[in-house]
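User: For my dataset I need records formatted as: sequence, then C-alpha cells, nothing else. Please produce one.
Assistant:
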Amino acid sequence: MYRGKRVLVTGGASFIGSHLVDSLIERGAEVLVADDFSSGRLSNLEYPLEKKGRGVWTWENLTVKEGDLKDKCFTKEVVKDVDIIFHLAALHGGRGYIQTHPAECCTNMILDQLVFEEAMKAGVERICFASSACVYPSYLQMEEGSSYLLKEEDADPFVRDKAFADLEYGWAKLMGEMALKAYHQEYGMKTSSVRIFTAYGPRENETHAVIALIAKAFIKMDPFVIWGTGEQDRNFTYVTDIVNAMLLAAEKIEDGSPVNAGRDDRITLNQAAEYIFNIIGWKPNKIEHDLSKPQGVASRAANLSRAKKILGWEPKIPYYEGFERTINWYFKNKNRKTVKINLTKILIERNNSRV
C-alpha cells in the first residue's frame, strides 16, 4: 500500500512519529514530516538530512518541514499532493503534563480540525489519527487490580455516560475521532483512529512513566520516588507494536471507527520499577511513594478483540525485552549530570526533551 505513495506524518520528529517514519521509508513511501519541534527532535530522524533552506531538510525520500500546524498557510502547504496522512501532531505528554497544562491540551482541537479540513480540500485519500486511551471514561478505570479490558464501544461521544473522557486531553482526542467519522460520512474520506495505550520505547521523553522511572534509576535516585502508590497499573506497549497497528489501521479501516492499540495484560508501576532495577543491576536502599503527584487512573488495559479481528494485530514485544531496549537507548544517549540537574522540570515539561 505504501510503496511510491506520498505520506505526510504530522509530528513525525516525535517519539512515535519518528518510528513510524522509519517503517514508512522501509516500505518504500515518499515521506514528508511536518513538526514544530516543541517535543520532537530532528535527531530522532536518524538519517543524513541536508538542510535545504529555512526550516527544510531532505534525504532521499524524506523531507522535513518545520512549522506550526495551527497556521493555516503551513497546513495547506504540507497537505498538498499527499496521498495518506498519519496525524500524530499534538500538545501532549504524560500524566504530569496533561494534568498541569489543560489549556494547552485544548488547542489540539484547533490543530486537528485544520489538518482534517485542509486534507479534505486537497483531496487526500486517507487519514489515520493517533488517538488515545484517555478517551475512555475514568469510572471504568478506578479499581486497583481490575481485570476489566476497555472496549472501543466504551467511549462514544453520542452515547450517554460513554462520553466521559479523561481530562481535557482525552476530550480533545474524542472530538478528533468524532470529526473523522463526520468527514467520512459527508465527504467519503477514508479515515481511521488508533487509540494508543501507554506507549514507550527509545526516543520517548521523561514526562511518561517508563522513561521517568528509567531516568531516576539512571541518576541512581535514592530514596527512589514513585508517583502515587505505585499500585496503579498500565499495559505499557512498545513503540514498534504501536506503529504496526497504525500502519494496518490506515490500510484496513476506512469509516473512521476506532481501534485499540495496547496490551490486554498489565503491570504496576512498582513492578515496572523492579524490572528496571533488575535490568541495570542496581537497586535503591529506599523507595518512597509521593501521593501528592498526579497518578492517573488506577487500572488500564485494552480489549484487543477488534484489533485482532480487523487488523490481524496484537503486540509482539514482551515487557522485559521492551524495557531492556529502552534502557539501553536511554543510557547510551543521556548525560547523567544534565538529567540530574533538570529532572524536576523534565518530568512535567515536554519541551525539555532536548535535555
